[in-house]
Amino acid sequence: PPLGPADLSTLERIACELATEAGRLIVEERPRHVDVAATKSTGTDVVTVMDQRSEELLRTRLEELRPQDGLLGEEGGSKESSSGITWVVDPIDGTVNYLYDIPAYAVSVAACVGDVSVAGAWHTVAGAVINPVTGELFHARQGGGAFLRRGEELTLLNVSGQRDLALSLLGTGFGYAAQKRREQISVVAAIIGEVRDIRRIGSAALDLCSVAAGRLDVYYESGLNAWDQAAGQLIVTEAGGVVRGRHGAPAGKELVIAGPDPLVTDLAALIDA
Ligand code: IPD
Ligand code: CA
Ligand code: CA
Ligand code: CA
After folding, report:
1. Of ligand 1's atoms, which has the minimum distance to the CA of residue 224?
2. Which of 10, 30, 54, 232, by CA, is between 20 and 30 Å from 38?
3. C-alpha of residue 47 to centroid of ligand 2, in Å
4. Taking CB atoms and a 6 Å cutoff, what residues make up the pocket around ligand 1?
5. Range of the domain at 148
6. Total of domains in the chain
7. CATH code: domain of residue 196
8. Gene3D superfamilies per the record (predicted)?
9. Whether residues 86 and 175 fall in one domain
C-alpha cells in the first residue's frame, strides 16, 4: 500500500528521534582519546568503537519500533525488509572529524523504499541528519519541506538563490583510496578556477544539509555510498534543490551533484566533460 501522510510523518519523527538518540550517545560517550577499532578499505579508512555502538543503538531501536522494516548500515547492519521500507543509516558520518574532535560529524538516518542495493532503484521518503555537537537537526519527509531544528526553533530550509557558478561556494569530498583521491583532485583542479571557493567539510551528510540550508551553494562528490547520502538527498530536494548523478543519471556511487538547478546544470557540464 502507498505511504500516506500519516505514515510519512511517523517515519520522519522516528528518523529524528533515532538520529538524536545516537547523536547524544556519540557525544556524551566520546572517549577523550578515540581509538581506532579497525581499518577498512585503506589504513586511513577507520572505524571506531563509537561508530559500532551508534549503529548498534540504531539497529536495536529500529528492531523494537519497526520490526518489519529492513536495514542497511555502514558498519555491517543488514536486514531484508518485509514492509517495503528499508532504513539506511550512517552511524557517524565524518569519522575522521570525530577522531580529531572537529565538530563536523553527523548521524544520518533515512527511511527508503525500493532496492537499496541497486543505484537508482530506491528513494528516500523521510530522513534526518543531526550534528550532535551543534545540536542542529535537519529533517524532511517527501512532500513536506525540509527543516532545521535547533532546540525550540524550527526553520524552513531553502537552497541558495545563487545562479552564477563563478560566485558559488562549492562543497566536495574525497574517498579513502589513494588512486581515487588523485583522480578526484584532478576534477577539483578543473573546477577550482570556475567557482568562488571550495570547502571540504568532511561529512557528506552535513554537506548535503549545508546545501539545503544555503550554507554551500552547490556540492558534488563521487564514491559515496547510500548511507552517506540517503537522508541528505531528500533534505536537498525538499529544500527546492535538485540531486543528480553522471550524465543526468540518478545520483549514486559514481557521482552526486546537489544544489539549485542552474548551478547543478553548470557544474555537471564541467564534471561530465
Ligand atoms: C565519509 C565522509 C566524507 C566523504 C567520504 C565518506 P565516513 O564518510 O562523508 O565527507 O568525503 O567519502 O566516506 O566514513 O566518515 O562515514
Ligand atoms: Ca566510514
Ligand atoms: Ca559516511
Ligand atoms: Ca560512517
Report:
1. 12
2. 232
3. 6
4. 74, 90, 93-95, 173-175, 202-204, 221, 223-224, 228
5. 5-156
6. 2
7. 3.40.190.80
8. 3.40.190.80, Fructose-1,6-Bisphosphatase, subunit A, domain 1
9. no
Retrieve residue 102's grid coordinates. 572537529
Residues 150 and 176 placed together within one structural domain of the fold: no
* 11-62 tens-digit pLDDT: 999 999 999 999 999 999 999 889 899 999 999 999 999 999 999 999 999 9
Cβ count within 10 A of residue 131: 23
Q: Are residues 231 and 126 in the same domain?
A: no
Is 85 among the annotated ligand-binding positions?
no
Out of 125, 156, 187, a domain closes at: 156
Tens digits of per-residue pLDDT, 94-134?
Answer: 999 999 999 999 999 999 999 999 888 999 999 999 999 99
Q: Can you tell me which atom of ligand 1 is nearest the CA of 201? A: 10
Q: What is the CA radius of gyration of the chain?
A: 17
- pTM recorded for the entire structure: 0.97
- The Cα 246–Cα 227 span in angstroms is 19
The grid coordinates listed for 120 are 537508482
Domain boundary (130, 156, 182) is at 156
Locate 192 and state its grid cell. Answer: 577550482
